[in-house]
Design brief:
This is N5-carboxyaminoimidazole ribonucleotide synthase. By secondary structure, the protein is of the alpha+beta class. It has helices at residues 6-15, 48-55, 70-78, 87-94, 96-105, 119-128, 221-237, 272-275, 280-288, 317-326, 355-370; strands at 23-26, 39-42, 113-116, 135-139, 149-152, 170-174, 178-188, 194-196, 200-205, 208-214, 242-251, 256-262, 302-309, 331-334, 344-352. Strands 7, 8, 9, 10, 11, 12, 13, 14 and 15 form a nine-stranded antiparallel sheet that branches. Strands 3-6-4-5 form a four-stranded antiparallel sheet, sandwiched between helices. It has a two-stranded parallel ribbon with strand order 1-2.
Amino acid sequence: MVGGGQLARMTHEAGIPLGINFKILSDTPQDSAAKVVREVVVGDYRDLDTLRAFAQGCDVITFDHEHVPTEHLRALEADGIPVRPGPAALVHAQDKGVMRARLSALGIPCPRHRIVTDPADVARFAHEEGGGFPVVLKTVRGGYDGKGVWVIDSAEDPAAAEPFRAGVPVLAEEKVDYTRELAANVVRSPHGQAVAYPVVESIQVRGVCDTVIAPAPGLPDELGAAAQQLALRIAAELDVTGHLAVELFETTDGRVLVNELAMRPHNSGHWTQDGAVTSQFANHLRAVLDLPLGDPRPRAPWTVMVNVLGGDYPDMYPAYLHCMARDPGLKIHMYGKDVKPGRKVGHVTTFGDDLAEVRERARHAADYLRGTIDE
């Protein structure tokens, strides 16, 4: 797996009972996965020679992020190294402009959008195609967790010039009138077997995923099924191998629009570690190794995952004692990261029959671990 973050750490964990020998290419020895995986190569994923050396002896290469240059992945494929998902698929998660163009050509519902060249072009898009201001601007490559995204309120907004300083193309999109964000997670193997997890509600705070509720409460059955079918169709049309997360807007008029794609295990699927028969991490490994996929069904009526962000407690061990004693059914997953304010350092998961109670348990634990509450 290229990347040494928490996704690699949790994917490695899922591979242990399957007997999978796991190697990672990590930026530093201190990365989350590098602290627990036996075979670690420290190097720059942007360097082709490093990637080629890392790939020697591997049955398949996969990823915990989308940032490996597309041309390097093509070179690995030309060397005869299986890359899953392949570069022809992964580019749609790497480049938002490519993704929007392809999905639109397939008739997949997306926000109105266009590549823009400068602030004046943003104003033209807003008035001619985007339905007016505000407009959302995104750098086509490199953004995540709210980074590389700007909401522009008017043609005179000083922030309108900011995205163009990055030196990469900028995508303008209408600001969608939506009721909430959803995610449809699916997994697809090389021979076309695919499974779909229940559609979840994803709650963002300042551009960062805070809470995931599985399944999305109050979602009409027909809309949930349509979202799953949409994600399965995207996986098939783009020839995705592995886990695909399709982030969606549920609009005020009862539709879903595609917001983003991720072709790797995803934050909106962390609930599956404890809440599904087979986790997203185990199914991603099964898919990239072309093993039969596991059952994606939930184990309980409701599962809630809340991210733990770094806060006032640099040492979280005393907080563990309180949370574990208060709620023996609580599941805590920490990533082995240094605690910094606002940094994702772990997540908690709760499950049960009563949604309100399950949410309260997860919220309390995450807030206590962060230090925002003390009782």
